Amino acid sequence: MVTNTPYSQEVLQQLPSFLRLQQEVKELTERIGLLLGGASLLEAEPLGPVQPITEHYNVLTTFLRMVQSPPLRLHPRSLQGLRVVLDSDRSACSLHHMGHFIIPTTFDPSTLQGFLQSHAPEARLRTHRHKQVQVEEDSLVQDCVETLSLGGLSRDSTVSLVQMISCCRRLMELRPLLGLLDLQDLHLCVSHFYSVTQDGVLCVPWDWRA
Q: CA nearest 206: which of 188, 195, 189, 191?
């Protein structure tokens, strides 16, 4: 049963505006992606309330005007398969270790095209490597869950893929010993410290010591 409170009424009143803005943001994102050689434009953070999505809409609108005048001369599919994140806290373009471009929301259009074109090969290489590491992590997590009869195995957002892989490998090396313990239905979360959550999830540091 939904309680009819002033807050819920306000949320319902804002819903049409949010849905309209959400559609306009989607269309802007697609237009910008085409101008950026077919790259996918990612959101730095999930969009929720109307105010944040309004701010994001304004950022996209300003960014679109900047890449349109003068327009970037990129082949429509030259950056297809690559990703771009807009970051208002950055002052210069950079390439993330996972392979996506990080572009400041205010930039010099004359330098953007050269940066994207010159770093595209490295971006594809890093993206490919990241996907390979993701596949390896998924495989190791599944092996750990099945071999140790865990209820689940996850990692904190602050733990990297490489750190998670290292932790899983060590868990597998100790499976003869861990197999003697009753780990049935235990959910393990790889983090940076030891703790137990209210839900009963056991957190262990990725570089734990036996």
A: 191
Helices (H), 69-209: 109-148, 161-173, 175-178
Q: Contact 126/95 with Cβ under 8 angstroms? A: yes
Q: What is the β-pairing status of strands 94-95 and 101-104?
A: antiparallel
Amino acid 205 reads: P
Sheet (strand 195-196) strand order: 152-155, 187-191, 202-205, 195-196
Tokens standing for residue 173: 């090396």
Report the alpha-carbon distance of residue 7 to residue 12 in Å, rounded: 9
- pTM for the model stands at 0.76
pLDDT in tens, the chain (210 residues): 445 555 455 655 667 777 888 899 999 999 999 999 999 998 765 555 555 788 888 889 989 988 887 788 888 889 999 999 988 888 889 999 999 999 988 877 778 899 999 999 999 999 999 999 999 999 999 999 999 889 999 999 999 999 999 999 999 998 888 766 777 888 999 999 999 999 889 999 999 886
Domain ranges across the chain: 6-123, 149-205
85, burial (CB in 10 Å: exposed 0-12, middle 13-18, buried 19+)? middle
